[in-house]
Design a protein that fits this description.
Layout lengths: L4 E9 L3 H9 L1 H4 L7 E3 L6 E4 L3 E9 L3 E6 L12 E10 L2 E11 L2 H22 L14
Helix pairs in contact: 1-3
Length: 144
């Protein structure tokens, strides 16, 4: 079996977990910080489709505590739809929420590095948007 490469990030967000979940699952909110169009069905087996060519399905939805969804890129042989798993755990902490993020199933160190940069960028944008501010325009990216 091929070795799996993993991206892990933690970020403190000045917002309650319910707000962060909305920014991860509500199509109108997710496009404020990532993507340009979204279809979200936040229940196990439900569609996760974000227009940056990202596709997957929700695997686990525990209201205000945890989301997990398969991840991949349409047309990408290395990181195809469903080949990865994104897990987001939300922990009440210090008047806000600690977002513990894991993206597993990446095929190699280069994809791990690219997705690590992308997720650092987008999680920062999520923190700004969920806290009620405008994260500004986002540059187009070929990775997460």
């Amino acid at each position: 079996m091929a070795e799996s490469f993993v991206v892990r990030r933690e970020i403190q967000v000045a917002a309650p977990a319910a707000t962060i979940v909305a920014f991860l699952t509500d199509p109108e909110k997710i496009i404020r910080w990532m993507g340009s169009d979204a279809t979200m069905e936040p229940h196990p087996g439900g569609l996760y489709l974000l227009k940056v060519n990202e596709r997957g399905s929700f695997r686990e939805v525990v209201p205000v505590h945890r989301l997990a969804y398969s991840f991949g890129w349409d047309g990408d042989a290395d990181v195809s739809p469903g080949s990865g798993l994104v897990e987001v755990d939300l922990i009440d902490q210090g008047g806000g929420t600690l977002v513990r993020f894991t993206h597993s199933g990446l095929p190699n160190a280069a994809e791990q590095a690219d997705h690590g940069k992308g997720w650092t960028h987008y999680l920062g944008r999520l923190a700004v948007a969920a806290a009620g501010a405008d994260p500004g325009c986002r540059p187009q990216s070929s990775a997460a």
